[in-house]
Amino acid sequence: MADDVLAVWMDGFPGPAGHLARTARGDMAFIYDDAYVSRHSLPLSLSLPLEQKGFGDIETRAFFGNLLPENAQLQRVMEREGLARDDIVGLLRHLGADCAGSISCLPVGAPPVKTPGILSDDYEALEDAALKRIARSLRDERRLPAEVTDPSPVAGVQSKIAITVLEDGRFALPKPSTRAPTTHILKIPAQRDARDVRHEEAAAILAASAGLSVSIPQAIRIDGVEALLISRFDRHVSGGVVRRIHQEDFAQALGLPSELKYQRRGEPGRRFDLQAAISVLDRTRDPAASRLAFLKATIFNLCIGNTDNHAKNHAVLYDLPGAPRFAPLYDLLPIRLSKHFHHDLAFQIGAGAAFDDLTAEDFLSMLELLGVPHAAARLFLEAEIVPMLYALEDASPRLKSAGLKSFNDLLGRELEALAERLQLPVKIQPRDYFPAEGV
């Protein structure tokens, strides 16, 4: 018998897509609504296909648990409402009105959230004083001020708030009665990590210069607080109208809880590794293009020292009918600049678990898994990877001119090591020595 039930809505459908339940034993279940299955072709997830209709605790918990944030804001709701971390249904009752993608989790019988959002009607501009309090609280307390509720909690460990940018450039929140979609994420690191703001912006600009599809954040400052303003790729804004676009990260698509977003935490067959990533890529609308984009993204992340390239930092986007596409890159950060993080790779490349241990054979193994046989590897590297490395090298002077010398030194070190191991004809300008452990 269900102890707690939520209606799960998908934007654009007149009724619930299904129902999410928690039993008295604490098990979870999800079942699609018959009307949704008969009239809709879009599943909530690749791991929750319409053909199956009903799902038990493992599949349900993995998908819906990944909708929740992993930061102090979640902890505040747990403390305020007396909820346990594993009570995903209870937490979504308070946090699920405007989830990532097109999903809303609402009490049964509650009206659907506002869709689309109208910028001129459905939002209230933030006063400067309120915006400053939000920025300082996220930086110093790692949570929002007590009087502020995040209208659209987004998964991840960083301190952030979903906001809307109005047509005149002011920041705003949805009117509480509407629960309209937000347009941006305002992410604010702790004081010790303030430089991450410019590093993440610079990394995204480098990715764009290398020809990768990427969501480029904007580094801003609010009352002396460093912040990133990130345009949501799961929202579309046109003519003053905001619409949701469905998306899911690779952990959700694979049916993995967030705890298994790194290969080292899972077991064969239930972990995020290269084979698992390929299984998602091959279910996109253009598998060959998705495989190439993922391969180039993987090599790019190695070049910038981003060892945190885990399952929740990749997504698929359902912006057209039918199968999804590989989403733009996001959360790009030169993690090796910090001593505070693990520097093993999020997933192995060949037999290598750390960049400094990777061999040419490891790279060739990755290429072969992604569809490039050994016989064609040299031609592929020279046609696809060499131009990307040159583009990164050509774009690198802006790092130094922007005061990001350590990032430039790291980039040069990784580019040189990669070109040497793969015997690629790429000339890298000498930089200062950069220690592998960070600075």
Overview in brief:
The chain contains 13 helices and 17 strands. The chain is of the alpha+beta class and 439 residues long.
Structural overview:
By secondary structure, this protein is α+β, with helices and mostly antiparallel strands. The chain has 3 domains: 2-107, no CATH class; 117-237, no CATH class; 246-422, Phosphatidylinositol 3-kinase Catalytic Subunit, Chain A, Domain 5, CATH 1.10.1070. Helix content is 33%, strand content 17%. It has 13 helices and 17 strands. The chain has helices at residues 34-39, 57-65, 72-81, 88-95, 128-140, 196-209, 250-254, 274-281, 287-303, 360-369, 374-395, 397-401, 405-422, and strands at 2-10, 18-23, 28-32, 54-55, 103-107, 117-118, 123-125, 160-165, 171-174, 184-187, 218-222, 225-231, 235-238, 241-244, 246-249, 315-318, 325-326. It has a 6-stranded antiparallel sheet with strand order 7-9-8-10-12-11. β8 and β9 (171-174) form a beta hairpin. The longest helix has 22 residues, at 374-395. It is globular, with a radius of gyration of 22 Å. The model has no long low-confidence stretch (mean pLDDT 93).
